[in-house]
Amino acid sequence: MKLHLLLTGNELMAGDIIDSNSAMIAEQIKDYGWRINKKVTVGDELDRLCSEINQLCDDADVLIINGGLGPTVDDLTAVALARVSGTEICEHPQALAHLTQWCKTRGFSLNASNYKQAMLPKGCDIIANERGSAVGIKLKHKNCLIFASPGVPSELRPMLSNEIIPTLDNLFPSDHIQTLRLGVFGLGESGIQEMVNSHLSDWPDDIELGFRASMPVLEVKLTTRGSNPEARLRQWTPRVTELLADHLLGELPISLPSATINALKANNLQLCTAESCTGGLIASQLTSVAGASQVYPGGIVSYSNQVKAQLLNVSEESLASDGAVSEHVVRQMALGAIKATGADIAIAVTGIAGPDGGSADKPVGTVWIAWGTAQELKAIKLQLPFDRTAFQSWVAALSLDLVRRQILDLPELPQLMKRFQR
Amino acid sequence: MKLHLLLTGNELMAGDIIDSNSAMIAEQIKDYGWRINKKVTVGDELDRLCSEINQLCDDADVLIINGGLGPTVDDLTAVALARVSGTEICEHPQALAHLTQWCKTRGFSLNASNYKQAMLPKGCDIIANERGSAVGIKLKHKNCLIFASPGVPSELRPMLSNEIIPTLDNLFPSDHIQTLRLGVFGLGESGIQEMVNSHLSDWPDDIELGFRASMPVLEVKLTTRGSNPEARLRQWTPRVTELLADHLLGELPISLPSATINALKANNLQLCTAESCTGGLIASQLTSVAGASQVYPGGIVSYSNQVKAQLLNVSEESLASDGAVSEHVVRQMALGAIKATGADIAIAVTGIAGPDGGSADKPVGTVWIAWGTAQELKAIKLQLPFDRTAFQSWVAALSLDLVRRQILDLPELPQLMKRFQR
Prior knowledge:
- The first copy, chain A, is of the alpha/beta class.
- Chain A has three domains: 3-171, Molybdenum Cofactor Biosythetic Enzyme, Chain A; 177-251, Alpha-Beta Plaits (2-Layer Sandwich); 256-418, Maf protein (Alpha-Beta Complex), CATH 3.90.950.
- Chain A has 16 helices and 17 strands.
- In chain A, the strands form four sheets. The first copy, chain A, has a six-stranded mixed sheet, with helices on both faces. A five-stranded mixed sheet of chain A has the order 14-13-15-16-17, with helices on both faces.
- In chain A, helix 11 (281-287) links the parallel strand 13 and strand 14.
- In chain A, helix 2 packs parallel to helix 7 (153-171), helix 3 (46-58) packs across helix 4 and helix 10 (256-266) runs parallel beside helix 15 (388-407).
- The longest helix of chain A has 20 residues, at 388-407.
- The radius of gyration of chain A is 29 Å and the shape is elongated.
- The relative contact order of chain A is 0.08.
- Chains A and B meet through helix 2, strand 2, helix 8, strand 10 and helix 11 of A and helix 1, helix 2, strand 2, helix 6 and helix 11 of B.
- Strand 2 of chain A pairs antiparallel with strand 2 (36-42) of chain B, so a sheet runs across the interface.
């Protein structure tokens, strides 16, 4: 079944709103094994709308139109559908009944704007709208089945699941699709592609392997269909997880902080933070996860040297002789945080986020990270080629991952970060 | 000038990601008086891509292609452009130089996947990518000028403003549109609309007044064109700023943390933080601003009671009798942070972000905020009807705004928050 999508609305073209409806439609139809083949978005212009409907219908079994069913003058979908069908719009009794009832429930009588929504292409079917005034339209044009749906997401959603999808499922029954999404940290997109090329050359055609970067976490997606897609995925997933190895955080939705928190919980450990260059970002990411309080008593944002000395007991001598961005200081920060919070494990970071503050010796992008227990504290130095925002985000991500790796007894550094070590 | 947009990517068709790039493009070109006429989105299929490029070029002066420039096998834009141009892809010296340099900076050598990104349609021009590996492509097909740009928003943005828009501005000069964007905190969208309706009834037709919510900050936008749009805006802007009054943060790009940091700098004051329920978010937002170290020595994330007592000197007695979410505790947190960091002003927050941890007495959404100097410390209690993420984000925003208001001697609370005060 070949399905196209036509979105209409000046606000979509002007960038005033971001289209989330097409993602909702794609998500909902995906489990039925269908996908959107082509998506066209145009403004509220009648000629353009008519020509797009005609072109899209020539090339598809199904066309979903979204938007343009409202009460205002720029809502043109009904008129466009009438024109391409060579008919006219006229009062639709069921649509009128719905509108009358809809207004009555809300305590006002039908006005001219609302009445306009009862004027539909002659002979079309309607699709019930349980949330709003605009009914949907169903009609056949050429060999294409057209559904016209409202642009308001909360009205579109039930229309899709109650009427459009069941109709399609009846007309075009298909195998359902099974998808597995894995969260990965510390491998680049091209790095994974290389690994796949060299280690999964026997990968079967019926399981699609896709990647998506939403840095710093990368998503690896396995998709299959057929008579028993679950079993098919179960059979091949281990090959991928083996390849991703220590870089695999788990099945999505998983985030770096929740992966680290899970590791802490499973081992009954408490983590604290001492942040300079990340300025509270690590703490904030940890505490964005509900239930973080079980494993995270708190931390110190020691942005100034004075706070490093006062709250984390970093020696004035180290600060003066080695500088704030140094191994001595980062180790003292970690120990100071453990002492102050009573946690088992610390993350401490100190670096130069930029754009200013770098020197020949310690350029922007230099960072020292210390992590571990008071007894077994590790420290590394990295040089990261990112701007301020990305620098903070990568240092936070890596810090959380270093702790996860240490708790789970995995290799010390993720692949992607080795090149930045100094 | 007629401009079409072609977006490519299976992830866009599958609903895995929501396209925000086309809104970014529409926003940026709008100021030049241009708009997107038609937008087509297709998956990563070579035949479909080629036929769409051909069709769109027949009907437009300019085609912007977005996506499909990456290193993986499903990135097909370069190949498609070569095919429709009747040429082939070959190594592009400038692209190769960029890639080599890009890899070198990151400490690894060019692999096959990255090398693929140097293979471009013969004879095309490149568009520099200052943020990523994939250069853009510029070429003429039929009578249409094509720009191919990367799908990663942070790479697309500078490419648009540095190269694509200046090129178009040169080829298709038009009346410029003058736009003024104001950042506002503490007024709702409908609240502003009401204010406009009742106080700006004489607003002129040639200046468009628009709102855009990117909560917690709201954008108010004035747009005009004509022979002297700057003067026209200068004339009417004071009417709007007067209306927004203490809720106006300044001209965008302004953020809440930078507005607060500006106020601190102007008054030579230092701020510290003591965060419980926001868990470092306030600190993180402050330190996301370059130069924050001038006014922000640091803070404490006192997630556990033990850390509140140990690092902020909150009395065990208050914690036991009043509970962690109480006026006594939040005031002691603020004083403790000032003492520990040596700052002039503190923000302290303690509350119940949820989803768990609420009680009949202190339901989820309860928060105490204290702010001010040791001598003049204020505290308020609010009850916020938001989920965990929104709760943390609004508490952080309000806290920063309370400090800004105090320093600038503005009314204590923004309009929108009054209804939540308890």
